[in-house]
Design goal:
ten-stranded mixed beta sheet, Immunoglobulin-like, transmembrane, Rossmann fold, NXPH/NXPE, alpha+beta, binds 2-acetamido-2-deoxy-beta-D-glucopyranose, transmembrane helix, 556 residues, NXPE4_C
Length: 556
């Protein structure tokens, strides 16, 4: 009997194991099946009218355990140094003051003169408004090395020593003068405020939807996360991606009556002390002066030093400007597409889909303007968000633009045209003649990072599916870029937020067959002022990088 029992339990265990395997198999295939059926049907958003729900709705939670693990690793990897606690009483006098701070160009290691291929190091010392040295880190600094006459420039890497001093490291990439520029973007106390705002006040930018039915119309507030009130909610969470979105339910109309999405406005309620941490010309993106000479003279590369240069290049900047032209350091030679026929030749027979915000719409507009044969097919779309389509019949070129859906800060936009990038990618066939270019960053500044991570995880899954189905599809991602910072822009969309997002974006798509256009460095290294929408000479360089990825130089 005992023997039989053991036998049965042994077989039982094997049977159980088999069942589990079969179940896993079925579940996996169901997932595939779900994706396939979903992408072949029209998406309808599920609408919940459950009126018993009154708590805050903050679905920043990851979709799966794997996603959660990745999210926490990513958050660790972008951890910013500790900054002074808040809401400690902050006296401006004790915060970082760019006017009192200085930088010093350190002598060349091993002595002698500077050569192309060397690394230049600068020591930055931060002082407060009373002139006392700061003892802790966490300030946000950026650095650039440039030569205005040569239209040359390269971004520096800033290292925080956590004791009030910082290093900026530059690769010397051209002969002639090279001038150092160091900028304090935010004092560490401002970072404390920025961090807290995204945890506590992600709805400081809010949205509105108009609901309409017959002659009745109502407007309510919408967001990723709504503060608790007595009002019931409409749940517009996307079924395919799980991307959350909510509006307060209109009093009379149903959730299905939502017709537009728009930026509502902003709610900023700062104390005087907090406001003083974000002042133009005082402590918001202000240059730091050199304590001695700010420039060096660089001699030609020493023979036999190119290996040194290559090793610098691997961990250093992604490129630099020379004669106003972006030179990539990643091994690709950036081609120049100076004439419309150069561009047409590259795009002949191709479909280029552009998705994202206004910063990538600039690419669409640049190409549309540069190619006289690209004619707009008028879809009578909303002016900012599209969708737009331009066609060159003779050369069989199609170029489209579509915005990235919520949380888009936009004037009233039809909800029927809102599409998540991941869902759009799932509806593409792809292939050697298909180019996908997207960006997603400028509307995410005011949310906890978890929300951005989740969005990118969804997009990446769709990119992986697309590349599995059609490996020849070219996927190109534009990163975020530094911009002009007013007080308002700083507290809702600071470069600090963009930088943190950027690090996540790069980590997220690492190792995939996608290409990055490093808008961050391309704006940072350029002499033109930082701008949310970079000026044409910078866009031209981005387009050259984009087209180089689509049509690489023969033999490379
Ligand atoms: C509404 O939500 C509550 C709380 O989550 C739940 O208990 C209830 O069953 C829901 N009602 C409907 C009709 O879905
Ligand atoms: C801060 O740390 C750096 C790197 O360890 C060191 O070189 C520098 O002397 C320190 N500065 C101060 C003021 O302690
Ligand atoms: C909103 O809808 C999604 C998708 O159906 C669901 O998973 C989520 O729990 C809902 N959220 C709330 C707060 O009702
Ligand atoms: C603004 O902040 C003050 C002090 O922190 C607080 O008492 C007040 O309720 C806030 N107002 C709003 C509209 O949030
Ligand atoms: C494109 O224009 C730039 C800037 O005017 C010039 O330096 C470069 O030689 C041109 N390249 C080609 C291939 O025409």
């Amino acid at each position: 009997d005992m023997k039989v029992n053991i036998c049965v339990s042994k077989y039982g265990a094997i049977f159980l194991l088999l069942t589990v395997f079969v179940l896993i198999f079925i579940l996996r295939n169901m997932d595939d099946l779900k994706v396939r059926t979903l992408s072949s049907t029209i998406f309808t958003q599920r609408v919940s009218t459950n009126t018993s729900m009154h708590q805050a709705v903050c679905t920043y939670q990851p979709l799966s355990t794997e996603d959660a693990v990745e999210a926490s690793l990513l958050l660790d990897s972008i951890a910013w140094p500790e900054t002074p606690p808040s809401p400690a009483p902050v006296s401006l006098e004790q915060t970082s003051d760019p006017a009192h701070s200085t930088f010093t160009v350190l002598p060349r290691k091993g002595g002698g003169q500077w050569h192309v291929g060397d690394q230049l190091e600068v020591m930055i010392k931060i002082y407060d408004f009373k002139g006392s040295p700061r003892k802790s880190g966490g300030d946000f600094l950026i650095a650039r090395l440039h030569n205005r006459k040569l239209s040359a420039g390269v971004a520096g890497q800033v290292v925080d020593h956590l004791n009030g001093s910082y290093s900026a490291v530059f690769s010397l990439l051209w002969e002639g003068d090279a001038q150092v520029e160091v900028t304090l973007v935010h004092p560490s106390e401002a970072i404390t405020v920025l961090r807290r705002l995204n945890q506590e006040k992600p709805d400081r930018i809010y949205f509105q939807s108009v609901f309409r039915s017959g002659s009745q119309s109502e407007t309510t507030t919408c967001n990723v996360c709504l503060p608790p009130t007595q009002q019931p909610l409409c749940n517009y969470t996307d079924l395919h991606t799980g991307e959350p979105w909510f509006c307060y339910k209109p009093k009379k109309l149903s959730c299905n009556a939502r017709i537009t999405h728009a930026m509502g406005g902003h709610k900023l309620n700062f104390t005087t002390e907090e406001n003083r941490l974000f002042q133009n010309n005082i402590n918001l993106k202000v240059s730091i002066q050199a304590s001695g000479p700010a420039s060096v003279t660089v001699l030609p590369e020493k023979t036999g030093q190119s290996e040194v240069k290559n090793s610098i290049v691997k961990s250093g900047p992604s490129g630099y400007y020379y004669q106003g032209v972006w030179q990539s350091l990643g091994g690709t030679t950036v081609r120049q597409f100076n004439t419309s026929s150069d561009i047409t030749q590259c795009l002949k027979g191709k479909v280029v889909h552009v998705y994202g915000d206004s910063t990538i719409r600039q690419w669409f507009e640049y190409l549309h303007t540069a190619l006289p044969d690209l004619k707009e097919f008028n879809l009578h779309s909303q002016k900012q968000g599209g969708p737009f389509m331009v066609l060159d019949h003779a050369n069989n070129i199609m170029l489209t633009f579509r915005c990235h859906s919520t949380p888009l800060r936009i004037s009233p936009f039809p909800t029927r045209e809102l599409r998540y990038i991941a869902n759009e990618l799932d509806n593409l066939v792809g292939g050697a003649n298909t180019v996908v270019a997207f960006t997603i960053w400028a509307h995410f500044g005011n949310y906890p990072m978890e929300f951005y991570i989740r969005r990118l995880q969804n997009i990446r899954r769709a990119v992986v599916r697309l590349l599995d189905a059609a490996p020849d599809t070219r996927v190109i991602i534009r990163t975020g870029n530094p911009k002009a910072l007013s007080h308002f822009v700083a507290v809702t969309n600071s470069d600090w937020y963009s930088l943190q997002n950027d690090k996540v974006l790069r980590a997220m798509f690492k190792g995939l067959n996608v290409h990055l256009v490093d808008a961050w460095e391309m704006v940072l290294a350029h002499h033109l002022p930082h701008n949310l929408h970079p000026q044409p000479p910078i866009i031209k360089n981005m387009i050259d990088v984009l087209l180089t990825y689509i049509c690489p130089q023969k033999g490379s």
